[in-house]
Amino acid sequence: MKNIRIAGQILLGAALIYAGITHLTTSRLEFQAQVPTWVPLSADFVVLASGVVEICLGIALASLQYRRYVGWITAAFFVAIFPGNISQYINGIDAFGLDTDQARLIRLFFQPPLVLWALWATGIFPRRDQKRQIFRR
């Protein structure tokens, strides 16, 4: 089970690195469209900053050090960016092939599994027979 979790952690790290790179390059404009209008920063800055954060989180996940800390931070990041997905749905913003209300609504249900993936892959949800420690290396 430990090897499966480690593989899941590395896969999530690779996905975040890829997403971060697309924030900085090919999908930059589409990501800008998802930034809620109430955010008091420029949409471009938010997209660039979140791209850099995603790359850093991806590298941290792939390094396998400080697994639980990185897991909590990654889960918190996924929660922090969720308002962008909600904004895309509420405002009917077309991006990433999500061009119907139904598609945008379905997208919302993918964020909680990402949070759980980050927590599970980094060992925050240990097996029942292990002693439960929140911050364990």
TrEMBL record:
GO terms for biological process: methylamine metabolic process. Keywords: Membrane, Transmembrane, Transmembrane helix. Its main location: membrane. The chain crosses the membrane at residues 43-62, 69-90, 110-127. The keyword Metal-binding does not apply. One of its GO terms (cellular component) is membrane. Residues 3-82 form the Methylamine utilisation protein MauE domain. It is a multi-pass membrane protein. This is Unannotated protein. It comes from freshwater metagenome.
